[in-house]
Every structure is written in C-alpha cells, then in structure tokens.
Amino acid sequence: MNLDSTKGGWKLISAEDRNEAHPDSFHIPTRQKRESLKPGEAAKLLFYIETEEKGRIVDRGVDRMWVIIKARSEEGYVGILDNNPGVAENLRLREGDLITFGAEHVAEIGSPPREYIVKKYGVSFLEN
User: Fold this and answer.
1) pLDDT tens-digit readout, 55-96
2) How many distinct structural domains can be found in the chain?
3) Which of 68, 8, 4 lies closest to 38 in space, CA to CA?
4) Among 100, 103, 74, which Cα is nearest to 16's?
5) Nearest Cα residue to 104 out of 81, 67, 75
6) Backbone phi and psi for residue 105, each to the nearest 5 degrees, phi listed first
7) Under a CB-based contact definition with an 8 Å cutoff, are residues 15 and 48 in contact?
8) How many CA atoms, within 13 angstroms, populate the side-chain half-sphere of residue 119?
9) For a disulfide at 103, which of 11, 34, 38, 70, Cβ 3.0-4.6 Å?
C-alpha cells in the first residue's frame, strides 16, 4: 500500500473494514456511537504511515492515535491530532494538526477531561 509522497506519508484506515476482516479480535464502538460524537470527545483513529529516509521507505505500518473532536464536517468530523506521530523527511503529520474523518475511521471513543483540553488547546477549543 504505497502512498503518494505528495500526500504527506500517511492516510486514514477504515476501522469498519478492519472490524469486518477480524470481527473476533478487532472490536469497534457501534455505528450509532461513532456517528454521535460531540466536541471535546476523542476518537482513536488508524493512521497508515510510511516513513522515508533519503527518498527510500524505511518503515510502514498502522499507528493508533487519538484525535479530539473540534466540530462536525461534511465528511463527519474535524479534530485535532492529540498524539505525536514522530518525524520523518516525508511525514507531514504533526501533533495539533487538524484531521478530517468519518465514523468509519473511529476505532475507539474516549472522554478526555475538560481541564486537559483547556490546558492544552485553550478554552476556545470547546466553544462553537
């Protein structure tokens, strides 16, 4: 699954597809829960990442990372990446980046404390 280097070295993977392929070992929340997330809640998403050094792929795999929901979008949600994905010459993904995703990408749902969100992103993060 090579990525086009102009895409930034990453793409989201469908948690629904992973669940369908491995229903006994890869569990996800119900569709209803994944479609009803609210600002301030967190979604764990599957990021397929390829890292390069000197133009050569040196690693590839899926990382599970948290995104805190900021708002709903046409695609489903917009959130802020709340994990550090690491650094590579081709990787254009950083903690704090806005991520647009759909319910099909949500592998897990979390509820970070309001104090954590306000301290890290400011009180305006929770205002719409």
Assistant:
1) 788 788 999 999 999 999 888 999 999 999 988 878 889 999
2) 1
3) 68
4) 103
5) 75
6) -90, -15
7) no
8) 5
9) 34
Domain of residue 73, residue span:
5-126
* Mean confidence (pLDDT) of the chain: 90
For 7-64, how does the pLDDT look when each residue is reduced to its tens digit (9 = 90+)?
688 999 999 999 999 999 999 999 999 999 999 999 999 999 988 888 788 788 999 9
Round to whole Å and give the CA distance between 74 and 102. Answer: 9
Q: What is the token pair recorded at 112?
A: 């970070």
- Amino acid code (one letter) for 110: G
Q: Tokens at residue 67, please?
A: 């995104």
d(CA 76, CA 23): 24
- Length of the chain, in residues: 128
> CA–CA separation, 45 vs 67, rounded Å?
7
